[in-house]
Design a protein that fits this description.
This protein is mainly α. The protein has one domain. 69% of the residues lie in helices and 0% in strands. Helix 2 packs antiparallel against helix 4 (66-90), helix 6 (160-189) runs antiparallel to helix 7 (192-205) and helix 6 packs antiparallel against helix 9. The N and C termini lie far apart (63 Å).
Length: 255
Amino acid sequence: MAPFVGKESIEIPLLMTQSSFMLRLERWPAPYLRFSEWLLLIFVAIVPAVFSAANPQVGQYYLRMPSLFYGYMLINEMSMIALLMYVLFRQGRDLSDLGLSFKKGQLKDDIKDGIGLAVVCSALMAFLYYATWYGYFAKTGRTINLEPENIEFTRTPLTVLYMAAMIINPFFEELIVRAFTMTEVLALSGRPWLAVAASVLLQFSYHLYQGVPAMFLLCLFLVFSIYFFKTRRIFPLILAHMIFDLGSMLRYATR
């Protein structure tokens, strides 16, 4: 920076100002900018979870301080939802463009669909579970453990933070990994199958730590993604996801 050459004269550092930065962004091709913003959100919101899932002992790290883990989870996921809202705002959109709205007439139907999805998917998961168990037993004469692995962090005392995390998590996953990802991929590629595949595989990638049962979740994620593509409504999926999360919490949490 140059020295003062007058009382009101100063040389501005050679840094990009906010206005020039926004001008450069506006000059980017719209599809490229849209893809970049989606990639940025996925990178900061989902990639850390994918790396954690790659460690089969991921749950062990949270056993000593479960409240700290769930507190961090809450702050992180709410921050990512806020970032999503900012990205949408920058593009002149909001959460209603991702299928999240609470219109008086629509909400009742969304609740019915959400509960219906939870029931249907529970039946599907049960069928896959028992078909796999009996199929393996018939072929080998031995039983197979199909309980999720590495979920020690769920076997912690039931607290307000634990419950709050199970309520916020479905909003985080379904808005970012399902609604936003599918909307962007579909808009950029025009291929419905690619939008469905991107959402399913992305969500599947950070559930791999559960072992073989993660394959059952793959079917669940596929049903959810097809439903969103057909209806463009995300709240039923959030509700169904929440029912599964709260059910798991009640099953595994210690008293």
